[in-house]
Design a protein that fits this description.
mainly alpha; 0% strand
Length: 135
Amino acid sequence: MTIVTHAVHNCCWQVKVIQQRATYRTGQGVFGRPIRIAATEEMASYRWWMSFGAQTPELQYIAVRVLSQVTSAGSCETNWSPFDFIHSKKRNRLACPTVRNIVTVHCNLRLVDRIEQLGHCDDNIDWSSDGDNSE
């Protein structure tokens, strides 16, 4: 039920979702029909909830929201690529905080390079002064 508390912050709504989950789990209403079981094997999960979840709108909202999320290892690979680059066989004795710091610096430098390649220029703020022009 932690998904419910993270997805919805309204307590009344959370209670409705929990009650509607009981309706779903016990197979009451449309959830008890034989077509429902046959459709679970033929339809994508989020489409099934779009088709059969109208009786429980709050639960349907959460189910469709969770099941519609795309899952991919691509973002994980992108995230771990700098770690593999930094933490090689030659540098495998580095402590975890050191590796994290080096990866952060590496990623920030790559980000700065990309921004410069795009030709983005930003007015630098002089942080050494207090912003007051009076002398």
